[in-house]
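Lab notebook, bench 4. We co-purified these components, and the gel suggests they stay together. Before we commit to crystallization screens, I want a quick structural picture of the whole thing.
Request: model the full complex, all chains together.
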Amino acid sequence: MEMSGGGAQRPAMSTVWQAFNLFPWLTVLENTVFGLKLAGVPIAERDARARRALAAVDLSGFEHRFPRQLSGGMRQRVGLARALVMEPEVLLLDEPFGSLDAQTRLVLQEQLARLVETSHTTAILVTHSIEEALLLSDHIIVMTARPGRVAAQIEVTLPRPRTLATTHDPTYGKLFDQIYSLLRDEVMRAMIIDSVGARG
Amino acid sequence: MTQRPVVEPMMDMEDVMVPSPLLRNDPRVLGWGSLILVLAAWEIIARLTGVSALYLPRPSQIIETLISMFATGGLVADLMVTLGRIFGGFSIALVIGTMLGIWIATSERVRAIADMFIAALYPLPKITLIPLLIIWLGTGGPFMLTISGLGAIFPIVINTVLGVRQCDPGLVLAARDLGATQQQIVRMVLLPSAIPSIFAGVRLGLGVSIILVVAAEMVVGKTGLGARLYLAGQVLETEQVFAILIVLAALGIVVTKVQDTIDVWLGRWRLD
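Here is the predicted assembly.
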């Protein structure tokens, strides 16, 4: 993915949250235009952009529903549309699928991969799932537990588009093992620190 | 018929027991029906016993008085005066109370100060302030608006603080991420998320406003429903006393129903 030059109205970063953080008293459309409204984008333009973003996450027809009336996966797609409609330089995804069930998670991962490929946005994904990281990223940074430092940087050379079949690729297995062993060491160390802390 | 199952649904039982379709379990029919029944019993008993209208006028006499008071007695003017006092003071309390509530909820320092004053003033029966307010403001419009506003402002402030503080911090983070300034966060996140709670305060506050305005009118008013009521009692116009009580009760019903409707509308995003 390339970093874009960016226009005057593009924010540096927009976030997709683990807990969705949709405004429950606003409809899907009102949630999606929230940032554009703050930025002073004219009504006609912000509506058109929001509808396009909602179409991109397959939510056309749900514009006037309230978040409570949607499933978890649909809510997070609103969260994704709300961030993408801002056309940010960087899209920050903070464990975006952490509170979704496994099936919904798979579908949304594929959708996210497509969206990021087509939009000119750099995406930073924070995740605890090695599979999610490998299926979505070009570049993985493994962090240590405490203090949070960079443990390793890994280039993911797997071809796109990546699907579940990608998990059978020998490169996938090799990278998975490499990341897992790094993380396991980290988790072990953190557990030792925790138990020492508990004794002290 | 003998083939009918042993376990019957409850509805069937009641259909058998209640012969008239009018008396089904419709809450409206039950409510209005019982009211009409009580009034009819009242009318009949008053006629049979011949009790003096000075003590217990018959419903028919009360209705007659009520109509003539509306037609000629200027009851509409008194009602308008009272409504103006109630909603005038209440509106001021709503604006000031909501702003004060948000200020208290968003600033630790303001909260520490306000907590003391609220703790001291909230439990104080506002009716005890009537003598002091009369000394300061006289008995005219400013006094009436103040007493009405004082009744409403405490529940509104307290519920606004509660509502704002219960706002999901994640929503504030999301708004900030989307470029909201502190002021926009207050207006577009904290305030709307607190509205159901603020409205609970409005319900309580408006009730207190009505009580205080009518009470104040009874004590010092020359116009308004409370003054009318007190005067009618003084000259033993019992029909008029009842007629004004009916107007006050009707006012209560209207206010409650309007609030119920607003509640449903405000809560639509909470429904699944």
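The first helix of chain B runs from residue 10 to 17. Worth comparing against the SEC data before the next meeting. The mean pLDDT of chain B is 87.
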